[in-house]
Amino acid sequence: MVSFNCYACHERQGLGGPEIGTDSYFISMGEDMGEEGRIAPHLNDAGAKLTLNWLRDVLEKGTKVRPYMATRMPVFGKSAVSHLAEDFKKADGHLVGSNPIRPKLETRDIMRFGRQLIGLKGMGCITCHRFNRRNALGVQAVDLRHVVGRLEREWFSRYLVNPNALRPGTRMPSFWPEGKSVLDAVLSGNSDKQTEAIWKYLEAIPDVPLPQGLSRNEILLAPENGQAVIYRNFIQGAGPRAIGVGYPGEINLAWDANHLRPAVIWKGEFIDASKHWVGRGPGYQSPHGYSVFNLPDGPTLARLNDLHEDWPSARVNDRIGGRFKGMQLDENRRPTFLFQSGSIIAHDFFKPEVADNPFLSRILRMEAVETVENFYYRAGNGRNIQNLGDEVYLIDERLTIRLTLPEGHQAEIRRTSSGMEILVLLDFASGVIEIKQDYHWD
Question: What does the pLDDT look like over 203-240, one tens digit per residue?
């Protein structure tokens, strides 16, 4: 630190930092952040605070997370400081403390409560901190997308609970005075669970819904009184003729009326309509929840000459007379999607199943208006599919599907040029075919 004059800007264990003659050169770029916005952070516990990879990047490449700070750190190069990151870790190793067993939280609790705690109905972190390149509501402090890659997990928890102890004079308030949360209603007020929810939520960036209150024009659609809510518009992953359905129980679906298929499923909140309902409404709206899973592209049903033929693209629907024929709503406004594929008339119905881990159930009812041969139903595809037995399949280690097939039908896994598929050959000799398929995912 002496050799490279780190002490000119940084304090460590009482040594260094700006002096009377140089203090005025440390300025902030117009942000009202006080001393934290202009003075380089102290390095008292840098090895306990920062991850090894982040330390290396800062020292070797000059990586920065404080654009509001005008004074810049020189880049010394790998050959000059390659050892310094490890030196910091060794010097401050005694400050890290033990590695406590973290509470295990369900994904839905992480997304619900982590999002709430970061947002305006929680600790209000977005008031001062940027979030995944989006501006904060007030001053523009360090972007929270850097937290997980930058900070050590144990230091993070200690800082949240008592920020002033680790950074004296910081403007960041404590929401856990004397280790007790000010939000008793969130995760029973348990500080370990709350800090874990925040960490895991930040760890999942960018695949998370925005914190509550960050979108100023948010128009959040949600099911009410036990009835589903329907949103027909441009939805990411489901095309320009998407039909979004938000079901009670925080299970959601986007059905593609162009290509006659379920396109996207997700959990949590349904959709933010502000992109299309405010201003000119351009572009595609993304699902607002979490655990977003894209289902197979291409048609639900297709004719194959043999099992060596590739599954056709979505355009096959036009060639075989495929068309969307509208919806029927039940008493809870849950739609049945009606479509025709060749000479097959299909009724595609979905409903949420509420359990410890809610899932989506599909009932596909089909009948042929004339004789058909070599028509298949594609139940799923992916890079890797495992047959777990009893018509249960695990796709890409993330989606589990369970099939209930009519008598005389069976599923078959086949390899393709792009991965694997689950196909069911349809036999209309007995008349109407009904296939039930459950989707379980996190």
Answer: 999 988 889 888 767 888 999 999 999 999 999 999 99
Nearest alpha carbon to residue 435 among 384, 380, 398: 380
Question: By CB neighbour count within 10 A (0-12 exposed, 13-18 middle, 19+ buried), where does 46 fall?
Answer: buried
Whether pLDDT at 388 is above 90 = yes
The answer to whether 423 and 307 have CB atoms below 8 angstroms apart is yes
pTM of the model: 0.78
Q: Three-class SS of residue 433?
A: strand
pLDDT at 424 over 70: yes
CATH number of 107-203: 1.10.760.10
As given in the structure block, the two tokens for residue 117 are 């705690």
Whether 337 and 323 have beta carbons less than 8 Å apart is answered as no
> At the topology level of CATH, where does 220-441 sit?
Beta-galactosidase; Chain A, domain 5 (2.70.98)
The candidate with the shortest Cα–Cα distance to 357, out of 438, 295, 243, 246, is 438
User: 297-316: per-residue pLDDT in tens?
Assistant: 888 998 888 888 889 876 65
Q: Give yes or no for a contact between 259 and 317, defined as CB atoms under 8 angstroms apart.
A: yes
Q: Domain extents for the chain? A: 6-95, 107-203, 220-441
* Tokens 């001053």, located at residue: 139
Cα Dmax for the chain: 92
Q: Are the beta carbons of 112 and 268 closer than 8 angstroms?
A: yes
d(C-alpha 229, C-alpha 334), whole Å: 8
Residue 401, token pair as written in the block: 């599907």
Q: Please check whether residue 198 is in contact with residue 189, taking contact to mean a CB–CB distance below 8 angstroms.
A: no
Six-digit token string for 216 = 């100023």
| Res 319 pLDDT > 60 | no
